[in-house]
Amino acid sequence: MLILMKADASKGDVEAVEKKIRELGFTPNDIPGATRLAIGITGNQGPVDAGIFTVMAGVADAVPVSKPWKLVSREVKPNDTFVKIGGAQIGGGRFGIIAGPCAVESREQVDEAAVAVKAAGAHFLRGGAFKPRTSPYAFQGMKEEGLKILAEARAKTGLPIVTEVMDTRDVELVGRYADVLQVGARNMQNFSLLEAVGGQPKAVMLKRGLSATINEFLMAAEYILKQGNYNVILCERGIRTFETMTRNTLDLGSIPLIKRLTHLPIIVDPSHGTGDRASVPALARAAVAMGADGLMIEVHPHPDKALSDGPQSLTPEAFAKLMESVRAIAAVVGLGI
Ligand code: PEP
Ligand code: MN
Question: pLDDT tens-digit profile of 270-283?
Answer without folding.
Answer: 999 999 999 999 99
